[in-house]
Amino acid sequence: MTTTDYSYLQKATPRQIDRLASHLLRRYREKEQKSGLSIVYDITYICNQACPGCCVSAIAYKKGTEIAPESHGHDFQGISKVLHKIRAYLDSRPDLPFFLDFGGGELTLRPDWKDIVRLASELFGRESVGMNTNGTRASVEDLLEIEPYISYIGISIDGLEEYHNRWRKTVEGVNSYQKTMTLISQMIEHPSLRDKLDITTVPTKDNLAQIPDLMRELHALGIRHYSVHRAMQVGRFWERDELLPGKEDYFDLLLRLIETGEELGMNVHLHHSIESIYTALLLGHNTYAGDNIGNPDRKASLGIDPWGRVFFDPWCTVAPWDKLASSSLLDDGMDFEDILRSHGGVQDLIDSYCRIETRCQGCPVACSGGNRIASAAQHIRSTRGLKASAVTRDDLLGALAAVDPACPLYRDGDTFAPPDDADLLDVLRPFREAARGAAQK
Ligand code: SF4
């Protein structure tokens, strides 16, 4: 039997361990107050960039050509139908907190994107609506126009200028880093936009080292909120195994994020369940949220694709994951409750494949189990070496029980190390002590 090497955890200094414990504890408490329904709704898979790791395999439109309205998926009436069905579901649960985050593709390519944001705000309230953009198309005037209807604007910057421009191949042939950074600096001039702005980065093996310097550049512009989204092995990232950060990379990244965030006074997050794994394992707090609508991780979202189909995770909307697609909210007679609760529906899938007894092969730690899509993709792609076109629905369902590869317990071959191993408990001791100290502050 192979043993798991925890030496990377032992490299953390006492100061780093204290910072990490305080950060994770604060995030844990914030998330505890935020249960409810969260949805990422992709309203187009057309984009003006062609990133080699696009997780939704967005299609870059051809420069100089008109984008046919139907290529975005559904028209405004279709989107309105989806939003009204979500509203009807919430009406029967008046106390359920809700957040809707619009994504794509590049949603500002839709001529009706502002109307969609306004309608969502009318139905759910501005505090419940957010959007994500690559920041190369909308002007600051556009964003000021929709600011009264929105509470969150995520803009992606994937590294320093050379990396960002190499990664984000633009259709328009502009320097997209300069374009997006110019928009960000214009937004910072307006407190109402500045406070809603979050800059997001997807880490790869190639940009990990430059993230602290990117944070310093962003801070110089006045950015206060910065998030790193986990690299998900989906879409065009499916076959980019060589770029996927490993568990050691993520631990080191989180330490550096927290350290740099503290140095600069920035609010930082590392998304997609990595923080919840560390909170469970290193700090000993329960992050398994079996009552969450969606993955059993507080604030995990459901996904909706441009054709109104609902997915148990926003990261499983494209091939091969679309083999798990539910019916569409655009289907007559199909409401949101049906899609969630019907036999074989979204919640059925979660209850069958993501519950504590099955996720991560039934690991006994009181843990969310990290991210099911990242776990399954690692299992199917890196362990079994399957191409996306060869993956069946049964492969996907079987792989949902795999261990999250970002977890310190993860072992090659997709097994987990015993969480009560004496060596591990020794490694965890300083983290648990720091957590007790942080809890008393
Ligand atoms: S193996 Fe899975 S459930 Fe267990 S601690 Fe790791 S991520 Fe959490």
From TrEMBL:
UniProt keyword terms in alphabetical order: Iron, Iron-sulfur, Metal-binding, S-adenosyl-L-methionine
Top-level taxonomy: Bacteria, Bacillati, Bacillota, Bacilli, Bacillales
Pfam families: Radical_SAM
Transmembrane segments: none
Organism: Tumebacillus lacus
Name of this chain's protein: Radical SAM protein
InterPro entries, per database record: Aldolase_TIM, Radical_SAM_PqqE_MftC-like, rSAM, rSAM_sf
Record-annotated Radical SAM core domain positions: 33-275
Coiled-coil annotated residue ranges, if any: none
